[in-house]
Amino acid sequence: MQSKHNLPRVAPVLLALVVLVVPLSLRAGGETEKKLTKNQQQYDADGDGRLNEAEQKAADDAAKAKAKATREANKEKYDANDDGKLDDQERAQKKADEEAAKAAKQAEREAKKAEKAATK
Q1: Chain centroid, CA 10 distance in Å
Q2: Burial of 112 from C-beta contacts in 10 A (0-12 / 13-18 / 19+)
Q3: CA distances (Å), origin 28, targets 6, 17, 57, 110
Q4: Cβ neighbours of residue 14 under 8 Å, at least 6 residues apart?
Q5: CA distance 96 to 117
Q6: Contact 86, 76 (CB under 8 A)
Q7: pTM beyond 0.70
Q8: pLDDT at 92
Q9: What segment(s) does the record annotate as region Disordered (predicted)?
């Protein structure tokens, strides 16, 4: 007779467990199928929509090479005292140049937006 009285207590717990676990398992399956970004797509050699180990290594190597080239270009452009590294003043100059370029690009976008709004 004891089991008849436990069923009303256990049933809501089991139902809540099912309601919570099933969506989590469905969501977990969907996360493995993320789409590749545009940048990642260029390394997807077999076109399966996923990067395998070799493709991921190629992407990582390319990112490292690009970062190294950027560092070298920054040293070439901003290393005024030719000591092989950027000191605080040189970093400040680099940051100022980057902010000026960003502001110019933003002004250009706003000008295009204003021009487009004026033609409507």
Answers
A1: 44
A2: exposed
A3: 33, 16, 25, 42
A4: none
A5: 31
A6: no
A7: no
A8: 96
A9: 33-120
Tokens for 72, please give them. 């070298």
Residue 26 token pair: 């469905």
| Full DSSP string of 41-90 | HTT-TT-SSS--HHHHHHHHHHHHHHHHHHHHHHHHHH-TT-SSS--HHH
The CB density around residue 51, as the number of other CB atoms within 10 Å, is: 19
Q: According to the 3-state scheme, what is the secondary structure of 29-48? A: HHHCCCCCCHHHHCCCCCCC
pLDDT 10s digits, 74-106: 999 999 999 999 999 999 999 999 999 999 999
